[in-house]
Amino acid sequence: xxxxxxxxxxxxxxxxxxxxxxxxxxxxxxxxxxxxxxxxxxxxxxxxxxxxxxxxxxxxxxxxxxxxxxxxxxxxxxxxxxxxxxxxxxxxxxxxxxxxxxxxxxxxxxxxxxxxxxxxxxxxxxxxxxxxxxxxxxxxxxxxxxxxxxxx
Length: 152
Prior knowledge:
Blueprint: H1 3-15, E1 20-24, E2 28-33, E3 42-44, H2 61-73, E4 77-80, E5 85-88, E6 104-105, E7 110-116, E8 119-124, E9 129-134, E10 140-142, E11 147-151
Antiparallel strand pairs: 1-2, 2-3, 4-11, 5-7, 5-10, 6-9, 7-8, 9-11
């Protein structure tokens, strides 16, 4: 399954009334969920997984503590993705990013773009503030509700 087919499925799932969707064949496995709990968005397997083997690596208590501290130490309001698509941090590959950590933004200013089904959707700043964190990488596939940027 190629990335374009996955993007198409994600967009169709996002616009549907379904809460969960799963697909599995001998090489690929996809799971989409709009539920509150954290879920694995897309998993592509090249070899079959043995029964009883965890699909997601386990986190030790020490690692979990470090992750929890890093999440709580960043201040600001979370700007979430309004749709499923591909995040772009700049208007073109050869252009500078819309915003960087530490930049001051005005309400309505474009912070990034989420592409869904060949449509570029600008994600505006919901308020005036300072960008404290950028939570996605350029060209990263994002889900509905995924945190994109944090503004203080």
